[in-house]
Amino acid sequence: MIELWRSIGWRGQVPLAIALFALICAPVIADRYLLSVLTLILYLAYVGQAWNLMMGYAGQLSLGHALYVGLGGYVAALLWLDFGVGPWLSVFPAIAVGALFGAAIGWLGFRFHIEGVYFALLTIAFAEFTRIACDNLAFTGGSAGLFMPYVEKLAGEWWNLRGGQLLFYYLALLLAAAAIVLTAHLAHSRLGYYWLAVREDERAARTLGINSFRAKMTAVLISSGMTAVGGVFYAFYYNTLFPSQVFDTNQSIELILAPLIGGLGTVFGPIVGAFLLTPVGETLTTLAERLGVNLPGTKQVFYGLTLMVIITLRPTGVWPWMARVLGFGNRAS
Amino acid sequence: MQNAHCGKLTRRRVVAGAAAATALLGSPAVVRAETKALKVALLLPQSGYFAAAGQSCYRGAVIAPKVLADYGYHVTLSYYDFESNVAKARIQAERAIGDGAQCLVGAFESGATLAIAQVCEQRKVPLVVNIAAAPPITEQGYKYLVRNFDTGGQLLTNGLRLIKDLIAATKVDLTTAVFLHANDTFGMSMRHAMDKLFPVSHMPFKIAESISFDPQAQDLSVEVTKVRALNPDIVLVITHAADAIKLIRGMVMQRFEPKAIISPGSPGLYDEEFFDALGPLADFSIYTLPWANPKAQMTQALEAAFKPAHPKYRFAVDSFNVGFTFEALLIAADSFKRAGTANGSQLMAAIRATDIADHVMIGGPIKFDDKGQNNNIRSAVVQNRNRTPVVVLPPNVATMTPVLPMPPWHGRT
Amino acid sequence: MFSLYLNVISQGILTGLIYGLMALGLSVIFGVMRVVNFAHGEFAVVAMYATFLVFRYYGLDPLLMILPLAGLFFVVGYALHVTMVDRFVGRAEHEQFILLVGLAIIMVNGLLMIFGPDARAVNLPYGLDSYLVGPLIIPKARLYAAVAALVLACGLFVFLRYTRTGTAIRACVDNLVGAGVVGLNVKRLYAITFGIGLACVGAAGTLMVMIADAEPSLGSAYTLLAFIIVIIGGLGSMTGALVGGVLIGVSEALAGFVIAPSMKSMFSFALLAAILVLRPQGLMGRQT
């Protein structure tokens, strides 16, 4: 952590401190709507960071990350509903189950040398398979969904994640910050350099004596476990789980847009991307209303256009460019 | 944080959020007492997977203020599309309340409804559920929520009772059925209800098999082949419009002629796209659903307002979504009038005490039990005749008599 | 019972052939240019709506629409490649992914804005007729569409095998550097390839609307389906795409019939995972 702080230099330290301070103080001035938007942004930044570890650093494209969100969410929700196990405890089995599925996909993929788009399709296949299975399983509630009861007397039990917007906001902030610290730490660790080596040229990495299978596997395990924690957050924040919502391919796509737009393989890319994309969506909604356009779909058309423009102009993401323009230390990017 | 009775409201909007800096736009304070109208926000899935239903509800909402004004109620409406997405539903609810909404109405989809309910509960703003069938909605102990809609179980209980009446009225011999349902939230809650209720409802027919299908499947010909092999008299279906079309088309192509196609409480058999796609083949399908009472005065007023506002749409087809959305607004407006304030807890108390005898949908007066559920909604047997939904039972609200068995597919006009 | 299975299988084969034609378009683009067309299914849906419009206002049979629409899609594909996609050729997959996902979002919601969310049907005069062959029931529209898909696939096969341009495109697959060295205009060939890919998916959309209704949100499911078929059949293999299509069509039909209809697409994904692990080059693909 200290290492990260030092590495970015004073031109990075000042804005970072200001940003962190602003986020911590945000609830003082922000209204509830803004706070709920910020919560979503931070959640997406967190899950995006988890995906970024696997794709941005280790170079393994997963298009089925919703799988781990769903698994984490279902494990935590079922433990809470059936056994009254609170989220602080159930987060561990959630991580375990997420990582187990990650391990299965990783093992299949890396053992049989399934790469690139093929690997991405394998991840989609697992996510869709699990979605349909959950849709048809009785103990998950099937497609009728799983509902977490809202009990008045538990409403204040913050330690069981039964609370209001403020609780979830700070939790999301904590998660996002922790993910950034972890990423920064890993990126400068031996493992992080293994990942980069494998990402850039796997054969060369192997000749250097790097166990590429193990390096990639660790990336998948960390990423899937982290994403499962996001799933626990999702379950307790929204209190409802539907297989068709949480495991959906569209959900997977939504999760990875922030790091892709912000900048793959960078520490701050996912959070910058999240802070860019969600407000763009919200602003478009407001704009459409102000202009009196009530044609459903208008907003999404412009959203799609934004994606195409950004990726054409800044193919490596917004953050590396921003960091350069603002003159932040190069290690931060 | 900012309740309506504080006297002033501040609107804040996210404009841009680069590097965690968020610009806030504070608009001038709005003084609430300007009008005596209740500010209601409608949260509907106007795009995404449930877009068709969301837009249908929207059509009912836009004509509501004028009709309500004629009855002496005043509301101003604002609309929030949550894109059939639970996360967006929560955010849009926060936004609506931030914008000064004093009561929320929505949201057609059960997951989104619950996400909104949590926000309403924390903000102490009433939520009147227009449509959403999942039983847990009123079982979670929400204090700021009422539902003027049936649960899956109630829909089915009413439906099975009416099907019994229908068979008795038409004196047709129907002994076997196949139950075909979409595997989604609504379809499964109907399936659970069916498994529980059918064995104790002493129906004159047996269910040979229950089959679930994927509502997003491209092709349902295999499902039809499966049903055809069982050759039942009745095909009971829980569908949406798109899959209902595929089912009927499959039956015609595979030359399978059941004596009756009945939905015990689902949409799908009366949507405009269903009539559009199937033409005369859409006729004689039957569904038991809560329906706008064609003989009620308020329904006629609503229909009169609907026609000029939506010349491209038919009231008879939209009336289910339009009727319930209108009634939700009616409940909010009526409670506001009685409470004399938009203060959350007082308005909610008034909503809970609702007792409206004259309204749109078939059934007794609108009243809520301790859980916030209206148990007085009744269904009607509706049959497609000449590409129009027509109430055929019970006799006191019917405008035609039912036709069973269905005439053959070929030779229809 | 036997005749029931026969019916289920025949339905699977006919539908599978149309899926196959759609996947063929993806196979050509992916196989030649290595561009991952994540908007593939959305293009099919646009073609479905175009066919629907022409049918509704001019009463033209979709079978007559195939060639004009394929031509139009070829032009669109060519133009799209020159203006946008070309700069993404050879770039990282995730960059192509965002570009095409953005395009897909625009198409889906553009259709929603124009046509609304309702399903749109082409009601052919023979749409509900069927042939009775012994115990077999073969719906006419489905049969015609499947035969048309087969004919088009054969036409594409002949083009790639026996024309100069086709040979050049195949040369790019085998040896890109070599193709450049011998003076082939790779950029132009890629534009033609993208055009051909879209022409395939356009034609497939025209046929698809004969057996299924057009809805704005269908696209992503078609994209996924096309990818599965291409992987199963084998990349770059023309027959592979058709065989993969039929295999998926039949396996889904049988799974729906024997187990539960709502679980039938599980088998496609399981099949995909199995093929990826056991035979990554696909059933008909060449060993790499």
Number of domains of chain A: 1
Please count the beta strands of chain C (DSSP E, at least 2 residues each): 2
By CATH reckoning, the class of chain A would read Mainly Alpha
Q: List the total number of helices of chain A.
A: 15
**Helix count, DSSP H or I runs of 4 or more residues of chain C:** 11
Secondary-structure arrangement, i.e. CATH architecture of chain C: Orthogonal Bundle
- The helix-and-strand class of chain C reads mainly alpha
Number of strands of chain A: 2
Describe this structure in words.
The complex is a heterotrimer of chains A (333), B (413) and C (288). Chain A is built from 15 helices and two strands. With 333 residues, chain A is mainly alpha-helical. The longest helix of chain A is centred in the last third of the chain and has 27 residues, at 212-238. The two termini of chain A are 16 Å apart. Chain B has 413 residues and is of the alpha/beta class. Helices cover 38% and strands 16% of the residues of chain B. Chain B has eleven helices and twelve strands. In chain B, the strands form two sheets. Chain B has a seven-stranded mixed β-sheet, with helices on both faces. A five-stranded parallel β-sheet of chain B has the order 2-1-3-4-5, with helices on both faces. In chain B, α10 crosses α11 (344-352). The longest helix of chain B is centred in the C-terminal third of the chain and has 25 residues, at 315-339. The mean pLDDT of chain C is 88. With 288 residues, chain C is mostly helical. In chain C, 59% of the residues are buried. Chain C is globular, with a radius of gyration of 19 Å. Chain C has one domain (2-278): ABC transporter involved in vitamin B12 uptake, BtuC, CATH 1.10.3470. In chain C, α2 (40-58) packs across α8. Chain C starts with a helix and ends in a 10-residue tail after the last helix. At the A-B interface, α2, α3 and α13 of A face α1, α2, α3 and α5 of B.
